[in-house]
Design brief:
This protein is of the alpha+beta class. It has a domain of 240 residues: Brix domain (Rossmann fold, 3-Layer(aba) Sandwich), CATH 3.40.50.10480. It has seven helices and eleven strands. Strands 1, 2, 3, 4, 5, 6, 7, 8, 9, 10 and 11 form an eleven-stranded mixed beta sheet that branches. The longest helix is centred in the last third of the chain and has 40 residues. One of its GO terms (molecular function) is rRNA binding. This is PETER PAN-like protein. Pfam families: Brix. It comes from Arabidopsis thaliana.
Length: 346
Amino acid sequence: MGRFKNNKKSRVIGKPIAKKNQEDVSHVTGDKIPKSFVFSRMKLAGPVKQLQMDLRKLMLPYTALSLKEKKRNTLRDFLNVSGPMGVTHFLMLSKTASSLSLRVARTPQGPTLTFKIHQYSLASDIAQSQLRPRCPQDLFKSPPLIVLSGFGSQELHLKLATIMFQNIFPAIDINTVKLSTCQRLVLLNYNKDTKLIDFRHYSIRLQPVGVSRRIRKFVQNHQVPDLRNLQDVSDFVTKAGYGSESEGDEEAATVTLSSDLGRVNKGATKSAVKLQEIGPRMTMQLVKVEEGLCTGGIIFSEYEDVDGKKEKLKKKQDEEEEEDSEEEGEEGSEEDGEDMDEDFED
């Protein structure tokens, strides 16, 4: 008996990105909230596969965390699924024998920015290097804030990179934003000398100024402290090393809160802003900008002189037009000569 062929088309499997309690339209801009797919069109090695998962967590909550791609999936398959789900951006990892790259594209018509990743560290690597890694359960319930540094250039490719990164996360209104939603920060720093971009991902933590670490832990956890080796309750507060803030509040940025945040940080009081890296970490370089979605004309290329090519092409076209006009002029003069000869014969 012959085997039946599987006529099912290759498709991308992904759960709906927006949950029931999430909005689809930004109240700040009035546009759709940006959503993303993070995927690869090839089989990735273990560390690079984990980097892809770290990027998906970074893009939460407006991304498909459990997106399932197959080897036979094409870019058209992802594009067909992205429309009904309201996906606005693609982040595509690709690995060759010599390099690792990340493409960031706007759907459905582009542009596409290609970054070469020179170095990277996974979120697990960052956590292992820290004495007290921090990752609360509700850390990824809100999108991160985006901070761009060093992108204030008039060059077209840097302007496009600025617009792309600014629009990949939802916009916020500083007058109405809730402090409890500002828990993460994505920082991109561009070095104009090396042309490298440092990509960092931090968690934001607020600590009241002048309150010891022991008191903070007691208020937050509501656990009875161990007083067996102390003479009095006051010793718990005034014990050496814990009576004052030991983490350098004078060096950290301090802000005055407009409202209460948690059990410890109260409104109208000063709190120190602490940033703790949670990963992933990347050092990358913008090497290519295309007009369309992974296709179309090349706006910028780090390894090719795009402007020079355009000038040569324009010069070649001008020369061809001049040759055509000269040929037309010669043909016209020959016809005029023939008409004159006919006149003389008459």
